[in-house]
Amino acid sequence: MRRFLRHPVRLVPLGFLTAILLGTGLLMLPQANAGHRFTPFMTALFTATSAVSVTGMSVVDTSDYWAAPGLVMITVLTQLGGLGILTGATLVVLTVSRRLGLHNRLLVQAETAEFGIGDVRRLLLRIGLTVLVCETAITVVVAARLHLAYAYPPGRALWYALFHAVQAFNNSGFALYPDSLVRFAYDAWVTVPLALGAIVGGLGFPALFEAGREWRRPSGWSVSTKLTVWGSIVLLLVGFVGLLAAEWTNPLTLGPAGWAQKALVASTQDAFLRTGGFGTLDVTRLAEESYLLIIALMFIGGGSASTAGGIKVATFFLLAFVIWAEVRGEPDVTVGRRRVAGASQRQALTVALLSLAVVVAGTVGLILLTEGVRYYQALFEVTSAFSTAGLSVGVAPRLPAAGQLALAVLMYVGRVGTLTLGSAIALNTRRRLYRYPEEQPVVG
């Protein structure tokens, strides 16, 4: 067992699983819910998994079901899940001891996978400072708005603002309102800071730090940062235009609003689509065309080494460049005058195909487990769980225990990552000292 756990990559899924089980036990306590009764195991497990995986999907009404201790626990689990269990634990070690050993550096590198070992201490300090500054700024703005415009007492305004700020930056969708953020749909002082937090948190620390450091020279960015930043901008534009077009005349969503209000609601909801989880529109009332758009965006997700899920923006656009190079007959895949390594191309293809297989299998399983669920509802719910987006069409609370457990497993796999989970299982693979003769099979 000790040998099995020696490799840091194996500790990533184990760390998340440990946090989920610990959170489940704490949420089952009578003090955690408003009824002061023991929470059913499946409800606690689903909620803990949703929080640690920064999904925000729930089988109960968060605002009514959980008492203050339960909500605090959900906030802590979300923050830990967003930072990464190993990253968060190592950050605590660094804060207490002011130094890091090689083992702890390897643990963090196993989760971030974007930085060298020598950069870990500085990276952790920057991550902690970035999280603190962003969440504090969001909390201050939203708390002031709730206090001044909605007459919330200062303590309540601060708590509500802090809870939603943590959820937004970590791309989780738990809300203290039954309608998520629909009641604030036309209030830019509430929705825009939360939307910006979701965008920044969803970029990922590697891309965020490099883009901030070299903002005057975007041509000098690494391939990963270019794909993430420019790809995110493209997806935000596609989501905004697509959502606006699909819902412009829908009387249940944007139809009655003015053009400025439509633009505000569409832009903020667009920011939450891929992994944010909040709703400024009632998802159950969207047009079916919007469902197809949202499913595609959720599947893509956010940036690598971020609080977001999905196959990741860089993965999606790297595959687009691979296809483009193959169509043109180019011998190499190039992005911004940089040749992409073949290993990265194989990893992108592996992540995409494994993720697609998981989503398809999960959708079929959910349809078989639940009666009365339409195929697009099952696909939406499964994609949302796997991509840790958290948006729901109301299917999760109606599922039997087996269906809820299936969604919990999907959230866990989506947060840990298919490639990380597969690598943790297959680390005993040995490098061959020989190569077989090459042959080119007929493709297409």
**Helix-and-strand structural type:** mainly alpha
Supply the number of structural domains: 1
What is the number of beta strands? 0
Proportion of residues in helical segments:
55-70%
Strand content is under 5%
Molecular shape: globular
Order of helices and strands: HHHHHHHHHHHHHHHHHH
- Rg, nearest Å: 22 Å
Poorly predicted regions are 89-98, 110-118
Number of helices: 18
Mean pLDDT: 85
Largest sheet: none
- End-to-end Cα distance, whole Å, is 45 Å
Protein architecture, described:
The model is unreliable at 89-98 and 110-118 (pLDDT under 50). The chain has 18 helices and no strands. The chain is mostly helical and 444 residues long. The longest helix is centred in the first third of the chain and has 31 residues, at 120-150. It has one domain (8-425).
Summarize the entry for a quick read:
The chain has 444 residues and is mostly helical.
Based on the model shown, name its key terms.
444 residues; mainly alpha; 63% helix
Topology at a glance:
Blueprint: H1 8-27, H2 41-52, H3 62-65, H4 68-83, H5 85-97, H6 102-112, H7 120-150, H8 154-169, H9 188-203, H10 205-213, H11 223-247, H12 259-273, H13 288-300, H14 313-328, H15 342-369, H16 375-386, H17 401-416, H18 418-425
